[in-house]
Amino acid sequence: MTSIPKNLAKTLDKLIASQQGLYREGKVADYIPALATVSPELMAISVATLDGKLVGAGDIQAPFSIQSISKVFGLVMAMNRLGDSLWQRVRMEPSGQPFNSIIQLEWEKGIPRNPVINAGALLVADVLASHYSSSKLAFLSFMRHLANDENIYIDQNVYQSELIHGNRNAALTYLMKSFGNIEAEVPEVLSHYFTQCSISMNCHQLAQSLLFLANKGVDPRTNEQICTRQDSHRINAILSTSGMYDQSGEFAFSVGLPAKSGVGGGIIAIIPNYGVICSWSPPLNKFGNSVVGMNLISGFANELGLSIY
Ligand code: DON
């Protein structure tokens, strides 16, 4: 399907060069104050392929707050633990609402639209907090395992900042609890969720960690089955329809890859049977997606003709 450019590094260098200065079109997230301290000019793109290539350009070694990209990993863990019963507590439909919207959750009786909006990820956090004796440790170990790097860490500054400014997430969780859809105590769920959002990783680490989703659930580096083939399919479907929040339709229209963004400015995109792209640039558009990060991924995907549609 894909013609791999002979010089992937050169393609990525050119893409980074094409984005100089464009970070000014976005705004670094400040509703979690610790995120606002990051330099807006940093940017990076990495591509990891199933046949073992790892190529990048820009600030590829700089760690950033993975934020909502953590929702993908939490979902894998919850699917592995709960199996199909998870889908009685969260749906798989696009929400058409901002990622932290509360309005739909009451109409729909505490059942979140999908696991990658905040309400859905908090539901997943409840599953993990209720099914692991130490879900935060289990999550961090999972991330270190997938990245094959024991140095991956939780940024305590970001964690504290999320906790202090987490009233919207608390409201979402209490509302779900009022409908009987949250098992653990709300502070415990929030603590798990803020912990996973506060993990710092760089583009190389994130791209490599998600290779299993481009390879039917199997990590091509180790042949380990990280999730079932069916769950890999399902996660990619959810990322295609909801991973870029209420800009998911436009992203499918213009790029055509399953993807997930975070308010730290990171975006991951899965290229089935080929590899994973991770881009990063902190300033966001009004949907909470990185402006330059989206340009980098769409530039790469369009140049190589990677759309899955
Ligand atoms: O809960 C929050 O609002 C953040 N910790 C994560 C939100 C996020 O990354 C949404 N992404 N675009």
Automatic annotation (TrEMBL):
<feature type="binding site">
    <location>
        <position position="169"/>
    </location>
    <ligand>
        <name>substrate</name>
    </ligand>
</feature>
<comment type="subunit">
    <text>Homotetramer.</text>
</comment>
<feature type="binding site">
    <location>
        <position position="118"/>
    </location>
    <ligand>
        <name>substrate</name>
    </ligand>
</feature>
<protein>
    <recommendedName>
        <fullName>Glutaminase</fullName>
        <ecNumber>3.5.1.2</ecNumber>
    </recommendedName>
</protein>
<feature type="binding site">
    <location>
        <position position="68"/>
    </location>
    <ligand>
        <name>substrate</name>
    </ligand>
</feature>
<dbReference type="Pfam" id="PF04960">
    <property type="entry name" value="Glutaminase"/>
</dbReference>
<feature type="binding site">
    <location>
        <position position="245"/>
    </location>
    <ligand>
        <name>substrate</name>
    </ligand>
</feature>
<dbReference type="GO" id="GO:0004359">
    <property type="term" value="F:glutaminase activity"/>
</dbReference>
<feature type="binding site">
    <location>
        <position position="162"/>
    </location>
    <ligand>
        <name>substrate</name>
    </ligand>
</feature>
<comment type="similarity">
    <text>Belongs to the glutaminase family.</text>
</comment>
<dbReference type="InterPro" id="IPR015868">
    <property type="entry name" value="Glutaminase"/>
</dbReference>
<keyword id="KW-0378">Hydrolase</keyword>
<feature type="binding site">
    <location>
        <position position="263"/>
    </location>
    <ligand>
        <name>substrate</name>
    </ligand>
</feature>
<keyword id="KW-0007">Acetylation</keyword>
<feature type="binding site">
    <location>
        <position position="193"/>
    </location>
    <ligand>
        <name>substrate</name>
    </ligand>
</feature>
<dbReference type="InterPro" id="IPR012338">
    <property type="entry name" value="Beta-lactam/transpept-like"/>
</dbReference>
